[in-house]
């Protein structure tokens, strides 16, 4: 191995190496769960949260076996999307009209929308959309907008979406449970029903930012709740996401709990009650049930 195990913490062995606390993350007060680092039997290693060469080099500087440049320090390179992160002043929100009727008419509680500091844009790229800012600490790093006139595209985003970590992450940490949904509508629907432990995927892929947040929160129960569609897109996405998460969490932590309608906004009160009974009360959905649901358009055949 190119790393000195004696300089690492929280080592857990597995068939192809071990996981451990990432020393580069830990020196900055992160990785409290001690499972960011993966070291493979080949000698390669990398942090699940930060895959950059600079971060890997810092890991080696803190826990390497020698002083020379480490040939294994950088993970296998992969192309990075050309996506520039920018920020907006908080004063930008003063331009939003505090009219929450679009979402209130769809069953969303007004206090939830007020807390998110949302409103309707009357000009700019998000004109005629209900806009919710995306914060990182006290800084706005993006906006998500839903057309209030059903214009296409209905959802539009500004900012580096792959860096967004949005949702009830404090609740996820406190409740030790995370529900992963595709978009803002499902998030609003669940929070309005008193279920705050929700993280938004912003689509059907698991970003490194959301993966990192999950690893940091280290919940005991992760429920993948992508949309339930006749095309099978959401169902197939849930399988892919589960496969990725199973590499980072213990067996049994990750499960699939699709909504009973297309999404949580479209669920009837009776369907919502049934979903909570089957999913939140730990009644797991088997792979055979999932396969049947993909083919038959019914979650519970």
Descriptive account of the structure:
It is a single chain. With 301 residues, the chain is α/β, with parallel strands linked by helices. The chain has three domains: 5-63, no CATH class; 90-163, DNA primase, catalytic core, N-terminal domain (DNA primase DNAg catalytic core, N-terminal domain, Alpha-Beta Complex), CATH 3.90.980; 169-295, Dna Topoisomerase Vi A Subunit, Chain: A, domain 2 (3-Layer(aba) Sandwich), CATH 3.40.1360. Helices cover 29% and strands 18% of the residues. It contains ten helices and twelve strands. A hairpin with a 2-residue loop joins strand 1 and strand 2 (17-20). The longest helix has 13 residues, at 233-245. The chain starts with 11 loop residues before the first strand and ends in a 5-residue tail after the last helix.
Number of alpha- plus pi-helical segments: 10
Count of discrete domains = 3
CA-based shape: globular
CATH topology of the largest domain: Dna Topoisomerase Vi A Subunit, Chain: A, domain 2
Structural class: alpha/beta
The number of distinct β-strands equals 12
CATH architecture level-2 label of the largest domain? 3-Layer(aba) Sandwich
CA distance, first residue to last residue: 50 Å
Average pLDDT, rounded to a whole number, is 84
Strand content: 15-25%
The CATH class of the largest domain: Alpha Beta
Oligomer: single chain
In short:
This protein is an alpha/beta fold and 301 residues long. 29% of the residues lie in helices and 18% in strands.
């Amino acid at each position: 191995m190119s790393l000195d195990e004696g300089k690492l913490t929280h080592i857990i062995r597995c068939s192809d190496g071990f996981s451990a606390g990432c020393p580069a993350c830990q020196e900055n007060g992160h990785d409290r769960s001690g499972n960011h680092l993966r070291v493979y039997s080949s000698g390669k290693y990398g942090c699940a949260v930060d895959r950059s060469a600079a971060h890997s080099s810092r890991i080696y500087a803190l826990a390497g076996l020698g002083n020379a440049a480490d040939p294994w320090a950088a993970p296998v390179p992969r192309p990075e999307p050309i996506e520039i992160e920018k920020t907006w002043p908080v004063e930008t929100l003063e331009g939003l009209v505090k009219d929450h009727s679009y979402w209130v008419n769809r069953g969303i509680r007004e206090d939830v929308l007020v807390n998110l500091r949302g409103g309707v844009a009357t000009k700019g790229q998000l004109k005629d959309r209900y806009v919710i800012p995306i914060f990182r600490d006290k800084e706005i790093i993006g906006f998500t907008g839903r057309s209030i006139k059903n214009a296409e595209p209905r959802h539009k985003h500004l900012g580096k979406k792959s860096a967004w970590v949005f949702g009830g992450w404090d609740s996820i940490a406190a409740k030790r449970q995370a529900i992963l949904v595709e978009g803002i509508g499902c998030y609003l629907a669940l929070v309005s029903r008193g279920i705050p432990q929700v993280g938004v995927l912003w689509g059907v892929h698991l970003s490194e930012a959301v993966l990192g947040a999950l690893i940091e929160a280290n919940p005991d129960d992760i429920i993948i709740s992508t949309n339930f569609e006749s095309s099978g897109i959401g169902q197939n996405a849930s399988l892919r996401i589960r496969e990725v998460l199973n590499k980072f969490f213990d067996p049994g932590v990750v499960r699939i709990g699709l909504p009973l309608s297309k999404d949580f906004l479209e669920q009837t009160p009776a369907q919502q009650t049934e979903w909570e009974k089957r999913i939140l009360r730990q009644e797991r959905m088997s792979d055979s049930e999932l396969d049947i649901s993909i083919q038959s358009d019914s979650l519970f055949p």
